[in-house]
Known about the structure:
The chain is of the alpha/beta class and 231 residues long. The chain contains 8 helices and 12 strands. It has helices at 12-24, 35-44, 61-70, 86-94, 107-122, 160-171, 179-187, 196-209, and strands spanning 4-8, 28-32, 49-53, 77-81, 99-102, 135-137, 140-143, 148-151, 154-155, 177-178, 219-222, 226-229. It starts with a strand and ends with a strand.
Amino acid sequence: xxxxxxxxxxxxxxxxxxxxxxxxxxxxxxxxxxxxxxxxxxxxxxxxxxxxxxxxxxxxxxxxxxxxxxxxxxxxxxxxxxxxxxxxxxxxxxxxxxxxxxxxxxxxxxxxxxxxxxxxxxxxxxxxxxxxxxxxxxxxxxxxxxxxxxxxxxxxxxxxxxxxxxxxxxxxxxxxxxxxxxxxxxxxxxxxxxxxxxxxxxxxxxxxxxxxxxxxxxxxxxxxxxxxxxx
Length: 231
């Protein structure tokens, strides 16, 4: 069965380029030219992945991403934009985007990233490890095979990357993990954002799990090395 890709972009030439190359790669493509229509199709068409432009009429891409995540739509999202500023990149990732590409781009690179993200979203095991049925620690309950995590009985609203990072650290609880180890385990062959992406996602997990993200009890920073999840 073909994977369905939703493209949300108001530049017709970009949409045409992506549609052609993704179709050639074996994907089924649907598209929208504004944010509101894109959000609607994300709900009604249940795409496997969304390529979302940042600057859109009616509803900007960052707001579309934010609203989808608030509605528990966890479809992987690649942000596509002409802006090449770190703040835009980080904000998109913090709102729940899975990747970020800057125009102009190579269609081959887009397809490679789409395939990589789809592979990661479909895996049953992380980093080749046979996972425990569940992991219980300090008020956290993690079910790696169901991609669910609870904090004191409350289901956590995590993106795929946040969950993968949490699950990997939980499997290695108590161990100090370098940023490079975390990047390799969760993002595998995609190093486009560097180790900074690890810091962003740790910060996001702290916000969602820690009572006081400024004084974390779960996600400890080991200065000059990386992080560890306290056992």
